[in-house]
Design brief:
Elements: H1 2-9, H2 14-38, H3 42-66, H4 71-81, H5 87-106, H6 109-141, H7 146-203
């Protein structure tokens, strides 16, 4: 209740800050689920694909890829499906699929970076608005009294605090997602090299 009361004291600029917080949390939940679903045990997946290639050839390996979620499986599927065209065609398909999967992983990160930038700016705008209100109150009362300026200054400080808190939450989420995406990209690159080597051996 105390937090709600402070929120209302912050004035009109608190609402866009709250909207940014809701958008950031909603996107954060979505992105967290998406990245968790994109993560797989790459080593065990590579072993499954190798076994499928040895036992049933490209068709069996494609089935393993289709039954597995995540960018690594998509890259493997693209490469294996083009192996009959030659190693160069398979390698090109892997590179193209990797670029697409990277774009999917990074999709929407602009939301978090925008919140990190905009939330403090709205907070500082509210601060300026609060200070203007405080000076208007002084001018109207024709007296510098703490009670006269308290409301305006309180509004100024609250909008700044809430804006900075929202930006910090967004920054933490952004850093976490960036680290997870970087880890997935490294997995994709390492797995791609392994796949190309396996396809060369298969063609031999």
């Amino acid at each position: 209740m105390d937090l709600v009361a402070q929120f209302y004291k912050g004035g009109a600029f608190m609402w866009p800050i709250l909207a940014l917080l809701i958008v950031g949390v909603a996107y954060g939940i979505y992105k967290f689920i998406f990245l968790m679903q994109s993560s797989i045990d790459t080593k065990s997946f590579i072993i499954k694909v190798r076994n499928a290639l040895d036992e049933g050839g490209a068709e069996a390996a494609l089935k393993v890829c289709e039954d597995t979620k995540g960018p690594v499986a998509s890259i493997f599927h693209a490469g294996i499906s083009r192996v009959d065209k030659g190693i160069e065609a398979a390698e090109k398909a892997i590179v193209n699929a990797g670029s697409v999967e990277m774009a999917f992983l990074e999709k929407g990160m602009i939301v978090m970076s925008s919140i990190i930038t905009i939330a403090p700016m709205i907070g500082f705008t509210g601060t300026v608005g609060g200070m203007i209100s405080a000076f208007d109150a002084i001018a109207a009362a024709n007296d510098i009294n703490p009670g006269v300026v308290a409301t305006g200054i309180g509004q100024a400080l609250l909008t700044t605090v809430f804006g900075l808190v929202v930006a910090m939450v967004a920054q933490i989420l952004y850093n976490f997602f960036t680290s997870r995406i970087d880890a997935l990209i490294v997995d994709m690159e390492e797995a791609s090299l392994v796949l190309i080597d396996d396809l060369v051996e298969l063609k031999k």
